[in-house]
Model the fold of this input.
Amino acid sequence: ELSDGTTDIVHPEVRAHISSLVAALGGASTEDDGRYHLGDDALEVLRDIKRWIRFYDEKTNRMDVARCIHEANLIEGDLLPILATWPENATDSKYKSRIALACFEIMVPLTWPMERDKERMTINHHRHMPVLELAQVQYKMAMINFDEARILHAAVRTALPSLALPASDRAARDQGIIKLVLFFLRNMAMIAPPPNVQYEGDETQISRSATIDAFSYQDIFLFLLTLASNMGDDFRTEDTAVMEIIYHLIKRVDIEKLFMTEQQAHKAKAHELTSLMNKESAMLKAYTRNGPTRHNRFGTMIWVKREDGKMSSLSGQDALADTTARNLKMDKNKVFKPPRRTKKENKDERDLGPPAKLNARATGQLRSFVEEFLDSGFNPLFSHVRKTIDREASHVMQYHRRQFFYLVAWFLEAERTRQKLKRDSRKSNDDVSSFSLVAGVLNQEMFITLNKAMNEAYEYKDWHELAAVMRCFTQILLTVQEMIESGREDDEEIAENVLSRLFYEESTHDIIANIVRTYKDQGFYYLDAATELVHHFLRILEAYSKQNADMQVRSRKRTRQKKNKDQQQQGTEDGVLAEENDDSANDDETAERTSKERKFDFQRFAARFTPQGVVDTFVKFTRFYQDMDDSQLKRVHRFFYRLAFKQEMSVMLFRVDIIHLLYNMIKGPEALDKGSGMFKDWEELVKQILRKCFKKIEQRPELIIEMLFSKLQSTAFFLEYGYEKQTASKK
Amino acid sequence: KEPPSGLGIEEEVSVQKRVRVPNVKLDEERLLGPAGIPKLRKRAAGLKLKGKGHEFSDASRLLSFYQLWLDDLFPKARFLDALAMVEKAGHKKALVTARDGWINEGRSKASHDDDDEL
Done:
């Protein structure tokens, strides 16, 4: 019990120990313009604090020591001033460098990201975490904005002696120091104010811009570039740590904005503002059109005559406007909500965070880093990480795979944007840099990893990773397509080769169709990734199969083992046993699968995207039409167009809720912005679909009932053509 | 009967739960009932669509046709919610058979027409 009658939340003895240690560490002197003086046994004290953290907090899974350290103001009050007494040109003082290292050994666990793993959380976690999360933000603010010394740079300096050694000569301790420094930088890049908490401090001092600014000013970018470009030679196990730092720096950064010049950025901002204001005024206009023209107690009441002699009453003037408004009003007055399952908490959402907003200065700094990284570090780092992931090295965490795919996708897009800019800026000059800068992720090994990851993530229901893989796949497709159009012979040849390999495996086609067919509340990010992949995959595959009329694919056929044996004895089976892709070396399974080459038929492939499940996924995506940009709207538009007019399966769209959605996009109270580029296209498409729908209703009155339900393929076929589908007899 | 002594503490309180009135559901029974799809079919005869050139007004008419029918069938749910419930019920066996029946009806009619033409 404390003196004021409350009980302390940590053990009083722990608190006493920690505060006496912090006091013994040293302090600002009273003479000497208040410089920091180390205590006599400062090094031992630092080691003791470290031991407290390790053997009390970490061993017993509490957070008491961390809490006490936060309350004793150790980092801002002691550690940072101590690091400031280590002058930048003094590298030979052994004592000082050991003190510095000890400081970082304490700071790293204190800034370590906290996991919210429900099964391992104790009551102490619930007690301390909210405080400590804010404490970490405060630590970060203090460290990257510390005026007297460059803390991040000091971290790198502690690792310099170890870094200077050749990789083979480094002892375990040296490697540990390098790792420590990398983790410190990772923590600095990663810490952000917790979501769903209103951060009270100055946001600008811990924002992404401030982080990038600090990284640039303290030469951390150079350090990262050195490590990345020497990955595989001088550095081996550091690959994932470097990748993590880069991930936390660039996640959710808008690439297009990154590559704009200042002038363009200004223009884009102004444009964004005007378009937003236009949108708002359109919204207000729509409201005033239907809004009341008199005061709210005017008291209009109307009867609506309905069939069977029924009447409903409605109040409010807006009910006078027209039937649609009346129907809407009748609907809005209802309060019943069907029971819904509560949304699962998505723990991965914390990881990605909201889109990053960068100021002009940080944009410039990050851009130059990204360009240099593409030029020198991309291939060595990512091929090395890919190998590390493939051999399932012990330092690879589950989330590293996700980060890897995210980063590959991001940098591929960045490279394409950069090349586009270069092309635009000097049209006549043919000196466009080749795609060899990103060749490290366009080889066969990468595609194997990609396919494997896609299958595994889908199987284990790791949606977050699957979304990253899908984005990566999309970016690879887009890059390859750009290579084909690049007009350089060698690039074109490689691209042809890559495409033929990408499209060769029919299992890839299967899984993409499956993913999009089985979407069920995995979140918008996932939905966006899945529809984007399908859009580009279909588009590029169509073009490719047109060019290569006799394209072959390897399709897998599942046959019963016995049959398989029989056939083999008869010698009719021309396939060979397929290699098992996943590691589960299940002999039975292997034997069941045979593969053979088959001519690829695009029409048949495209027909996989007509079942109700796929259409539903796209419809769910379309529901977000008000928040979509033009490319997303176009994506759905193309899909619906293809479905209705190329594949003649418009019947799939004839369901009341879909018609409702399409109608409301154009004519509803919250319609698409009429000024937007896609509005005309959508209006035409919806009109054509509606026209088709009414024609069909006239032709087949039973559609009035079927419009309420999802349709099976056979029903849909009958409704579309009026006769039964001739099922092809199996061989 | 004894006069109530004091605060009524000694009186026995019934703790048995009363059975709740079951929730009304929009399920296949309701859909197949007289106010359900049979009614929809009857009403559909009165639905007049103008055709070419009036796509959007026709769509609005069609939607309000469905909305009013659903409002009569299951007044408490909103239009889109009710639609989702109907769609879900459509996978039930009873409804699947019924749907097949309706389609076959239309089919035989269509083939009769074809015969007439021949």
